[in-house]
Amino acid sequence: MPPQVERGFAGGHGSHWDAVLEDPGQLSEVVRAAFREGTTRDWVEAILGGEPTKVRERVLPLGGEGFEALLMELEVFTRAKPGVATVYPRLRPEGRPIEVTPTKVIEWGDGLEAEVVGSLGSGGDIAFFATDYFGRSQEYLGGTPLPVTLSGVSYTLGTISPEPRFEVVDGKRVDVSKAAIVAPLKDNERAPYYDDDFFLQGPVTRVRRFSYPPWDEGMVVELELPDLGKVPIFGRMKHFPHGPPKLGEVVAAYSWVQGQLAKSG
Predict the structure, then answer these.
(1) Which pTM does this prediction carry?
(2) Which is it for strands 172-175 and 166-169: parallel, antiparallel or unpaired?
(3) What are phi and psi of 204, to 5 degrees?
(4) Cβ-contact 108, 8 below 8 angstroms
(5) What is the per-residue pLDDT across 21-75, written as a single tens digit (0 to 9) for each?
(6) How far is CA 215 from CA 41, 127, 157, 186, 239, in A?
(7) CA 233: distance to chain centroid?
């Protein structure tokens, strides 16, 4: 069955650059760098909001490790010149895809971007911001199981104390200091989170530290998560004042979950 399609409210989903930059005002510097140094892809013709348009992507690497700024330009034929439609931080996913059957798609920008909510082949549900939605929307809307690879950009994260901390979960007393957790933040926290915002907690299986000058330092922390497998998460170094986490330590991250379809063929 095809997924339910909803429209996001005017104004978009938010930029998420406060998870990457100390001063969100530096975003203009990132945009200028993307035009100056980024890789430019070909224009793609489309109909958005009932108007014939062209869309072009510019990709600016941010220090390596698959972390980058993705900028999308929009040329509407009734306007004088192209404009920047969106720019957001993206961590390219890696590793084994998981099976997701989309059940709901929330479109932003007349279909330029979307959150995808879906059921997992292993049971349960997940939601993610589809970084490839513009080019592969028909696949997301087809109603069939899809191979999806996930990643995350964390708002904040940190190493969990190894001291036991027991809570009652599903009627059982559980040491949550060692638990692997995937839990939606929407409706569970006071901040205005979206469907694709999750609390992720699990043991560290890989750590890669890097810098993205002139703005900041960060790392990619790979977590082993229930039903999702190993998922890379971007986080700023400032959240680890005592140094990067060690393999096997448990890290918790308030994260924006991203996903894309596995490459065909």
Answers:
(1) 0.93
(2) antiparallel
(3) -80, 130
(4) yes
(5) 999 889 999 999 999 999 999 999 998 878 889 999 999 999 988 999 999 999 8
(6) 25, 30, 19, 30, 15
(7) 9
